[in-house]
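CO-FOLDING WORKSHEET

Operator: S.A.
Ligand of interest: flavin-adenine dinucleotide
Run index: 549
Mode: holo prediction, single chain
Checklist:
[x] sequence pasted
[x] SMILES validated
[ ] output reviewed
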Amino acid sequence: MRAIVPRSSSPRAARSPSAPGGEGEGGEENSCRERAADAGAGLFGEFPISFIEVRLHVNDQTPKNGLSRRDLLKGAAGALAVGVAAAAPLRAAEVETPRLLPGNGGEILPPPLPHANGNTPIAAPNLPGVLGREASLPKPKGPRVVVLGGGWGGLTISKYLKREFPKFDVVMVESRPNFMSCPMSNLWLGGLVEYDFLCYSFLDAAARHHYTFFNATLLDADRGSRIVYTDAGYIKYDYLVLSPGIDYDYDAIGVHDPADKSRLMQEYPAAFKPGSEHLTLKRKIDQFQKGLFVLTVPSGNYRCLPGPYERACMVASVFKRKKLAAKVVLLDHNPDVKIKKVGFRTAFEDLYKDYIEYHPSVDVTGVDVSGKVIRGNLEDFEFDDAAIYPRVRGHKLIETLGLLSPYSPQKEAWIDLYKNNVVNDPRTYVIGDSRPMGYSKSGSTAQGEAKYVAKVISAHEQGKEIGWQAPYTSCYSMVNADPPEAIFFGSEYLLPVVAMTPLSQERIGEKWVEFGTAFAWRDEQMVRSPEMGQAMFAWGKAHYREMFE
Ligand SMILES: Cc1cc2nc3c(=O)[nH]c(=O)nc-3n(C[C@H](O)[C@H](O)[C@H](O)COP(=O)(O)OP(=O)(O)OC[C@H]3O[C@@H](n4cnc5c(N)ncnc54)[C@H](O)[C@@H]3O)c2cc1C
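OUTPUT RECEIVED:
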């Protein structure tokens, strides 16, 4: 069976699959301590936000000095132990993550508010057409919070804003007519659940939790006047929460021409955004008869780190069940499986030796859509069908609204890392996969974060402050379909400042690992089992309940 086409050789030359390795558990793995589906507050409880801000300020003026991370952390922990905001060790401790820190140093200014002059929204400007008309909504009876996005972050914060402060008038603006879940969707591709299992009604969620579902697309916002513009009229607000998710960055895989991007998106969709992309992929898998089905794993902090590996297992399970002369060819940008390495590698070897061909360190540099060839840095790969997952960036709405962080290589939002508000704007918040922090871009993380930020906004409205809560991720992956067997990985994150506490000090070097812009605590179950499979179904149901019941 053909698989790889070395640049110099004739097309469709064959090569045997690369053998899965058993390199032990992940030096490269990124996450930490796993949590149950609806786990509560962070491992380290709450830290006063004002305390954290002092340190960020100090750090902002700090030059690099070449100390090791451990030395830096030690120094910082000592300072904390005596309860002093001692400038020297704190400066040192933070120099390693300067790009995370919101603006300062004078070199880059935060985004200005267009009309930041008062506390009350002004009337909408005289704009033509729908932009100049007020949306048809009930008159607010309390401070209005507009939540953009009815995904995992938006649905959860809409519910919890009402719980935290019932006087809030919450309007959730979402362009889709109904909800379809990405989490658990790989199980549907593998034939383990029906499509209905993934689908829910926004109307039911809104009615149950006493907020308003507004089915419209948000086009723009004037944060100074506190007005958002949608394709169904403008809405005045007191707070704005943005949870728009991700967009794809096709330029990062060498596809620049808009016509090529459009064809690639339509003919070989990534299926990492919910809806038609998934329906197309499901049809492709069900109709596939023989040959090579290529999946890709992008660079960077992409949505759902284990998602592409889990998908490879589920697609391969379909081919195996049908006894097809077909293979999943998994092209990974990373030098090895990025997360849950042992669990996935073992599954590839034990269950799918004849059905998955894994290729690490493949940097996709272009795609010939008509010729069905993926251009790699070292070799090209032909395919019969594919789902091509490009690099991920923050949703384009973040850019449209002028909220891009100059520190984020993936075009994410410029927010306070502890309170999630846009820098210099305590009335606009960003949560979910458009955040710049290095947490896992997962529904589980978005839900926990949404609950916390609901508290932050509610406290702000009441003139109070609350302490920071560590985010967490709980993440199951189904690796076998017959019978359903899963593996598990859990993470809890600490931003560098909090990681300086003596308590965290004991853990760094044990299970805490560096996770991009944060530290993460790993907890994992890499031995697949039917019990873990059942736990994954329970995880899905619990997380859906969190948003819809
Ligand atoms: C295949 C797959 C498997 C996954 N598996 C897991 C898993 O097992 N566990 C897990 O925890 N996570 C998983 N995830 C990740 C999870 O789906 C995301 O991290 C999560 O959805 C992020 O939530 P969000 O609110 O940031 O974005 P989303 O859930 O994508 O929500 C964004 C919403 O905003 C709406 N929107 C955007 N722009 C506008 C606009 N201008 N106007 C109106 N509406 C707008 C969109 O329509 C969308 O509904 C998986 C993802 C995929 C694709």
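REVIEW:
Residues 148-154, 173-176, 182-183, 185-186, 217-218, 243-245, 272, 303-304, 307, 395, 397, 432-433, 441-444, 446, 475 surround flavin-adenine dinucleotide (CB under 6 Å).
Residues 129-247+394-467 form a domain with the FAD/NAD(P)-binding domain fold (CATH 3.50.50.60).
[x] output reviewed
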